[in-house]
Design goal:
mainly alpha, about 120 residues, globular, 6 helices
């Protein structure tokens, strides 16, 4: 069920657009959040996949693609992963400080707005 563009491509494009818009310091902070989101998706989000998608993910991961989730799936899986990233990962696993959580929420809100501005639908 590979989607086009992939999450990895979307995140790269988003960061490229943000790099043109933000100061260097703001861009680095934004990139840190995007990297954390991608790492979360690649390491944990596979657990919520349906059996068909899980089989595709398993095959890619077992063949050595440690970024299989972001390489295989597209905008829908990205959008579906944002809420668990905040609730389960930042708050739960990492116990991130409130300031970090607020910044991450700002970045992922900007990402969602950017996705919509690009004409992509995140609806399942």
């Amino acid at each position: 069920m590979s989607e086009s563009p992939s999450i990895a491509q979307l995140l790269d494009r988003f960061l490229s657009d943000e790099e043109d818009r933000l100061s260097l310091q703001q861009y680095r902070a934004c990139k840190t959040v995007v990297d954390m989101l991608a790492n979360y998706l690649n390491r944990y989000a596979f657990a919520a996949l349906n059996p068909v998608d899980r089989k595709e993910w398993d095959a890619a991961y077992e063949s050595g693609d440690s970024d299989a989730y972001c390489n295989l799936f597209g905008v829908r899986k990205l959008v579906l992963g944002i809420k668990p990233f905040h609730e389960q990962h930042l708050r739960g696993r990492l116990h991130a400080p409130e300031m970090v959580q607020e910044h991450a929420l700002s970045v992922t809100s900007d990402l969602a707005d950017w996705i919509a501005s690009q004409g992509h639908s995140g609806r399942p």
